Amino acid sequence: MLHIVRKLARSLKRRVFYVTGWRRKQRCVFDYTSEPGERSPKADRLVAYCLGDFSNRPPVRCSRSRRYLRRKSILMLRTDREGIVTYSNASQTTWDQKKVVDALVSQRAKIPAGLNSWLIRGDSAGQTSDPKQGVHLSGMRPASRRDLVLVPTACRKRYLGMNLARQLDELHESWVPWEEKSDTVWWGGALTGDWWKDHEPRTLTRREVLQYFLDHPSDQVCCHLTELPQKVELPSGHAIERQFTKQSAFSHKCLLLLPGNDIASGSSWYFAGNSVVLMPRPHLEHILYFEMEPWQHYVPLENDPADVLVKLRWVQKNQEAAQKIVANSHERLRWLCGPEYLWACNEVLRRIAEPAANSAG
Questions:
Q1: CA atoms within 13 A on the CB side of 251
Q2: Does the domain made of 163-335 have the CATH classification 2.40.50.100?
Q3: Each residue's pLDDT tens digit, 93-151
Q4: Which of 279, 99, 276, 96 is nearest to 189 (CA)?
């Protein structure tokens, strides 16, 4: 019994969590040494990209409206002068949101004293947040929501920083040599994101692709449906197979990346493989998409499922160019693991906390 207690104590040494009151506040003490990173012109551009509207003006300070917090089911993140992090969360706050803070800690970013902001995740939350309530930290945002500030998110499989570096090294063992890959396209995921069909800007949806290749079967396209959201019907002719391996996906020369309810959960591992990514031009902003260019880091798709086969034929005829796209993609992912990226993360958080520090001084 004693060895179990000691094991638990060691696992909690770095981080201590305890809940107070009505389980709406959670104080977190982080025992780690942050790293400053390294400034560069590209890191400055990432800071401006993340800050949006606040890149040239001070951020709006958050109010303490509990009613707003409960209604929007988001998380409030606050740090005191000693750097103690306090979560103030609504009853429906998910662990995904708290992983944003965990991502900062795991990559040794400095969480500054005086930070006070709403923490949300996903486009749907961003569309219902109120800019007048102050700064909202988000993992992703539509181009129209420049009042949302992007921060690293570890939601599901969208890794950044040290976690992304670890994923790149691990997935390298699952790569399939280019010469052994089949001349096919692979897609895997849940049938989500139907609303993007009627959204502006318009984007290709997963249901459209599945239905098209059900009506126009092709042995060059492999679709692996893993699950359905509630109250959504399965297209006839498709079966749900929850399990697949990344190595089986990498056996195809092309991977099809389509948005779900927000950016695809597997975005980082798609680009970490050695297959070419086919995807519509992003309609949401995310750090993973920072300075990502079509034909340089991915092959762009038009809003027509038939274009999947058109772009596959391009890859088949231009294999050297396709492999160069893969190499460029890996280069930018490595940058998102490095010291310049970490400096940008620290600078974004510092800029958000700065108004509080100035008022305290």
A1: 8
A2: no
A3: 566 667 778 888 888 888 888 888 888 766 566 667 888 888 888 888 888 888 899 98
A4: 279
pLDDT value of residue 180: 96
Integer angstrom CA distances of residue 121 from 126, 142, 249: 7, 12, 28
DSSP secondary structure, 24-87, as one string:
TEEEEEE----------HHHHHHHHHHHGGGGSSPPPPP---HHHHHHHT-EEEEE-TT--EEE
How many Å apart are CA 206 and CA 274, to the nearest integer? Answer: 23
Report the alpha-carbon distance of residue 305 to residue 59 in Å, rounded.
41
Paired tokens of 330: 């890996």
Tens-place pLDDT, residues 16-42:
333 333 345 667 777 778 899 999 999
- Count CA atoms within 13 Å of residue 23 on its CB side: 3
How far apart are alpha carbons 156 and 270 in whole angstroms? 13
Token code pair at residue 274: 């050695």
Rounded distance between C-alpha atoms, residue 286 and residue 158, angstroms = 10
Residue 178 · residue 323 · CB < 8 Å: yes
Alpha carbon distance 220, 312 (integer Å) = 9
**What end-to-end distance do the CA atoms of the chain give, in Å?**
50
Check residue 339 and give left, alpha or beta (phi > 0: left; psi -120 to 50: alpha). alpha
**Interior/surface letters 249-279, b for 16+ CB within 10 angstroms, e for the rest:** bbbbbbbbbbbbbbbbbbbbbbbbbbbbbbb
Is the pLDDT higher at 181 or at 4? 181
Listed in sequence order, the residues at least 6 apart from 74 whose beta carbon sits closer than 8 Å to its beta carbon are 89, 90, 93, 97, 118, 119, 120, 125, 129, 136
pLDDT digits (tens, 9 = 90+) for 234-280: 555 455 556 678 898 999 999 999 988 778 888 889 999 999 999 99
pTM for the full predicted model: 0.84
> In the chain, where are the structural domains located?
2-156+339-360, 163-335
Report the pLDDT value the prediction gives residue 138, as an integer from 0 to 100: 87
